[in-house]
Amino acid sequence: MSVTASRRTEESSIEPLVEAFMQRVVAQSPGEVEFHQAVREVARSVMPLVQSKKAYRDAKVLDRLVVPENVYMFRVVWTDDAGEVRVNRGYRVQMSSLLGPYKGGLRFHPSVNLGVLKFLAFEQVFKNSLTTLLLGGGKGGSDFDPKGRSDGEVMRFCQSFMSCLFRHIGSEIDVPAGDIGVGGREIGFLFGQYRKLTHRFDGALTGKNVAWGGSNLRPEATGYGSVYFANDMLSTRGESVKGKTATVSGSGNVAQYTVEKLNTLGAKVVTMSDSNGTIVDPDGIDAEKLAWVMELKNVRRGRISEYANQFRGAQYLPGKRPWAVPCDLAFPSATQNEIEEEDARTLVRNGCYCVSEGANMPSHADAVEVFLDAKILYGPGKAANAGGVAVSGLEMNQNAGCMRRSREDVDAQLKTIMHSIHENCVAYGRENGFVNYVNGANAAAFVKVADAMVQQGYV
Ligand code: NDP
Ligand code: 2IT
Predict the structure, then answer these.
(1) What is the pTM of this model?
(2) Smaller CB count within 10 Å for the chain: N or C?
(3) How many CB atoms lie within 10 A of CB 318?
């Protein structure tokens, strides 16, 4: 029987159990479509494990994992530069503290709602379990849109947001960090307000500036880690990223450092994007061009379309994503569901055989099926982008020990952690000579969390 056929046979026997479970989840959380998508994928992967172990069934591990331990929702009021009062929604979803303090980023984007944050917090629990560090899982954020806002407006928003959040976080309770729309500038404003309100200087946030408690290499970690993971996947075929052509989506934190590491390791990156469109540069986005992009996005806060005016030979595709551009490797590094089924087919048809997800859940469930059926090297976000939270974990350890590790030291630890995540995915995801990294990541992460749940009793 082929791998695909055996996968489908196994799936058909567990599918009714998954469906019954999902009916309960959907009834309890109507309309939270991204959350349902994330839960369904995990349930499909781990249902055989749950069926094989009475202790998991008795402890109702799956039913418990989909209910957050705590959810905080709050009103965030601030004034814009014109003096007008603005109102936003703030959230923190504390999903699981089985393996350590709640840990996960804050997202500021108009699309943020409870369902989006529950999907991200759920993914985070599994991702953090894979890192080998002692981290629980959570996520938070706001529907605040930082685009076009002055530094003063962003600061006032962050201060108001933290005035609500500070009661619920702390270095041994819940440690937020950055995500979409939250980078070094926002972490600075958030930390300042946390310090003022609590009268404490502690590691309650990660992604801090290195000058006041941040870890070397935290900004780079997610992108670098995603490339290390791609290299590990490629090594199973005796290959590496060197000499390959890559497409990258996004032009924010994760995308920038993905491009940087790909360049360093000898690959050629031909695309970057933002929510308005994609730039294609057949000559490659080399180190000099990337430095220009970093200045554009991080300092001038401009749009990626400007790249095509700046560099000869580059083209801007308004309203398009990068997936129709032929490549060997793809690094979706923008947002959820940015690869739809047809995009996945186009990628595979054009010869792409390795996808490493810097973003969280960037591939639609149907797109994931296309990648698995084509048996390409497909690294799901919770494995491939775990380098960011892993270095956040190292930042927590450095803060707790009042010490700082060198760039080289952190990079070596990041590589070791990404290797171990890869090994774990292979150990749990091997199917007749093919590695199903989706099942591997979900199962490896689940076993650790589920065992802790059984061992820690019915709480
Ligand atoms: P940034 O805010 O730095 O950058 C986000 C990028 O994605 C921007 O280019 C943005 O374009 C684009 N983008 C955002 N929303 C959309 C959308 N709806 N459609 C198309 N493009 C969009 O965020 P990060 O780089 O930190 O995060 C990118 C992804 O990586 C997210 O999925 C995040 O959850 C994930 N991630 C981040 C980690 C981290 O350490 N920062 C760790 C692990 C995962 P525009 O400017 O137009 O909004
Ligand atoms: O999705 C993620 O893993 C992040 N946004 C980083 C979380 C963290 O705590 O560093």
Answers:
(1) 0.97
(2) C
(3) 8
